[in-house]
Automatic annotation (TrEMBL):
One example of a Gene Ontology biological process annotation: proton motive force-driven ATP synthesis
Main location: mitochondrion
Localization: Mitochondrion membrane
Family: Belongs to the ATPase g subunit family.
UniProt-recorded name of the protein: ATP synthase subunit
Organism expressing this protein natively: Periophthalmus magnuspinnatus
Listed transmembrane segments: 98-120
One MF annotation (Gene Ontology) recorded for this entry: proton transmembrane transporter activity
Top-rank lineage group of the source organism: Eukaryota
Sorted UniProt keywords: ATP synthesis, CF(0), Hydrogen ion transport, Ion transport, Membrane, Mitochondrion, Transmembrane, Transmembrane helix, Transport
Pfam families linked to this entry: ATP-synt_G (PF04718)
């Protein structure tokens, strides 16, 4: 038992050194990409983005609109789930039909947007 413990103690520095060597490239790679990707845009990059946004086709604009609509719908659904309904302060039973109608309407809008998205791609 003492010999096994002594062998383990002698291997600890090499194992620690190997762990440090193995983990060292990962933080440096992370910081490299963090400095490149997480930097706020410069004024020249903003002007290039604005110029690039003015040269889009109707198809791309429609596709961007569908994506924005989808994001807003998912935000709306998340808010309804988080609050437990549309109106929390008033009796939920009175507005159950309104909630059902809005959810069905949201599903229809989602279906139409998906169909249009695949039609125009």
């Amino acid at each position: 038992m003492a010999q096994a413990l002594q062998k383990l103690v002698t291997k600890v520095p090499t194992l620690l050194r190997a762990a440090v060597t193995y983990s060292k490239p990962r933080p440096t790679t992370f910081w490299h990409y963090a400095h490149v990707e997480l930097v706020p845009p410069s004024p020249t990059e903003i002007s290039k983005a604005i110029k690039g946004a003015t040269n889009i086709t109707v198809r791309d604009g429609f596709r961007n609109g569908l994506v924005a609509t989808e994001v807003m719908r998912w935000f709306y659904i998340g808010e309804c789930i988080g609050k437990g309904g549309l109106l929390v302060t008033v009796d939920k039973h009175l507005y159950s039909h309104l909630l059902l109608f809005l959810n069905v309407l949201n599903g229809l809008i989602c279906l139409v947007c998906v169909c249009l998205y695949f039609f125009y791609i």
